[in-house]
Amino acid sequence: MGLSARNACGQRQLPLALVLSATLFLLLVAAGRLIAQTSYHSDPTDALNHVSHSSSMMFLSQSGSCVSGTIQNTDIHTITVRSTAGSVVLKREELLQVRQGDALVFSGRSSWADVTGVHFVPHEALIVNLKNGKQVTGKPAKVNADELILKHGLAVTRYAKSEVATVDYVRVKPESDGFDYLAQEAPAVLWFDPETYARMVGLEGTIIVRLYDSTKPESTTPATCP
Question: Which of 55, 98, 99, 210 has a CA between 20 and 30 Å from the CA of residue 80?
Fold first, then answer.
């Protein structure tokens, strides 16, 4: 009767291919969650070295100038951006922020306002290091001017801003321009793009963006392009 034949009790069995596919998908989901939790790049200053060169981003300098494009090359001192006007070399020490849309990919400043402005997607979280040496990871239930309420596991805990040493944003790596184009112009075609499945199960990888550091002067003004 084939792979979907009835069993001895007269009940129809699921096709073997469907069972195997479902099992494989669940294993990928589990593996993706494990990878997302354990394999992120833990140095915020190193994040741009692990971003796809096919992802368009906005690079904001401390002087207020902005360049849009993809990363062409990186070294310990500079980032070379491939823009419509040609290659632009930016000094790392002069970078203020790098964004894809409204999501930060890198930040060279300390800003509690940036903590309040994060919009989370699956597989993302905050790592909060407290001044007493404790570290907690979770998603914020609420952030205001003087406190952070964090959900971690089944617990919901309130932390005063005065208790916080640093806040790191663990985010998924920026999507490629091809994925972004399909998401906007032809979403049905995304099912044929391998990047879709990598993002569904958390295999795209994550990077860390340091949003707040209590040892540095705090910036309260919005970072914008002229």
Answer: 210
Order of strands across the sheet that contains 86-91? 86-91, 78-83, 66-74, 57-61, 95-100, 103-107
Q: How many other C-beta atoms are found inside a 10 Å radius of the C-beta of residue 118?
A: 20
127-185 pLDDT per residue, tens = 999 999 999 999 999 999 999 999 988 889 999 999 999 999 999 888 888 878 788 88
Total residues found in the chain within this entry? 226
CATH of 16-52+109-213, one of 3.40.50.800, 2.30.30.100, 3.30.420.40, 3.40.50.300: 2.30.30.100
Q: Report the 10 Å Cβ neighbour count for 105.
A: 23
DSSP letter, residue 77: S
- CA–CA gap between residue 156 and residue 159 (Å, rounded): 10
The strand ranges marked E within the chain are 57-61, 66-74, 78-83, 86-91, 95-100, 103-107, 125-130, 135-144, 147-152, 155-160, 164-172, 206-213
Domain ranges for the chain: 16-52+109-213
What would the pLDDT profile of 11-58 be if each residue is shown by its tens digit? 444 455 544 555 555 555 555 544 444 445 556 777 888 888 889 999
